[in-house]
Automatic annotation (TrEMBL):
PANTHER family: ABC TRANSPORTER RELATED, ABC TRANSPORTER, ATP-BINDING PROTEIN
Alphabetized InterPro entries for the sequence: AAA+_ATPase (IPR003593), ABC_transporter-like_ATP-bd (IPR003439), ABC_transporter-like_CS (IPR017871), P-loop_NTPase (IPR027417)
Keywords: ATP-binding, Nucleotide-binding, Transport
Gene3D superfamilies linked to this entry: P-loop containing nucleotide triphosphate hydrolases
Family to which the UniProt record says this protein belongs: Belongs to the ABC transporter superfamily.
Pfam families, sorted: ABC_tran
Domain ABC transporter span(s) in chain numbering: 4-230
Lineage: Bacteria, Bacillati, Actinomycetota, Actinomycetes, Propionibacteriales
GO molecular function list: ATP binding; ATP hydrolysis activity
Name this protein carries in UniProt: ABC-2 type transport system ATP-binding protein
Amino acid sequence: MTTIQIDHVSRWYRNVVAVNDITMTIGPGVTGLLGPNGAGKSTLIALMSGFLAPSTGTVTLDGDPLWRNEQVYREIGLVPEREALFDYLTGRQFVVANAELHGLPDPGAAAQRALALIEMTDAQDRTISTYSKGMKQRIKMASALVHDPSVLLLDEPFNGMDPRQRIHLMELLRTMGAEGRTVLFSSHILEEVEQVARQIEVVVAGRHAASGDFGAIRRLMTDRPNRFVLRTSDDRTMASALLADASVRGARLRSEGGIELEASDFGRFSEVLPRLAREHGIRLHEVTPTDESLESVFAYLVST
Ligand SMILES: Nc1ncnc2c1ncn2[C@@H]1O[C@H](COP(=O)(O)OP(=O)(O)OP(=O)(O)O)[C@@H](O)[C@H]1O
């Protein structure tokens, strides 16, 4: 059982905060790291693979720090996003080279095992330049798996794949997860993530915005945020009318004007609010959700 623990980690590049105080635990099975472009996913993966030092906080693998720790690198396989492969090598030569870099006792045998695992045995003697996008992705996977790591990290592995390649890779990831490996892949597409991941971690603008299984993330889309600030033409009347309804848990008049409100049932609240306003002849000037993390997740999820 291998677990990556990210503890209050921030990482900035000069004045850009790419990862902002993130705490999360990645355990065995398949985890999807979901977030829009620029959310900080690649930075998180680089931190988890020991390629990047956190600016603050710690990243550990079963309790051992990852940064500059050769011992734990042996446990990790990384499939990077970029395509910088050595096009003039054959698939086999590329995987063998990685086995040699790891100092494995029998690089040839290790490469054959990895190539078989991702079903690239038949194509192993062709040069990488002749491979399709999906094959390139698989050869990167074979080289990441050549030392039989317990952790596999993949950065946007489905990008540019056709549907058949996508299904094949999903199968592979599921198998790896079922074998007890800790598999994490990043994506900006919810549907892609929920098809294969047991656990989903959502990052938005460098922050950890949500965490849970597919059901929990989907519920965020329907439950919607439940804290709001309202500005109306008659806050006092509006607040007491709202408080009388079962969809509202609490409402308070703010000293600076407006109503601070907590809804217990968003669906019903969204119907009741305009109806009550109409009944009392009150104009609604502003309805703003104040539950920022949920709102950002929601805005992101519905925009994809
Ligand atoms: N080496 C770097 N120098 C400066 N800024 C960087 C660097 N790497 C990333 N960033 C910035 O950090 C933020 C997070 O980037 P990151 O690549 O981690 O996000 P991402 O979610 O992987 O996005 P993408 O899918 O577009 O790669 C972005 O604003 C990005 O511009």
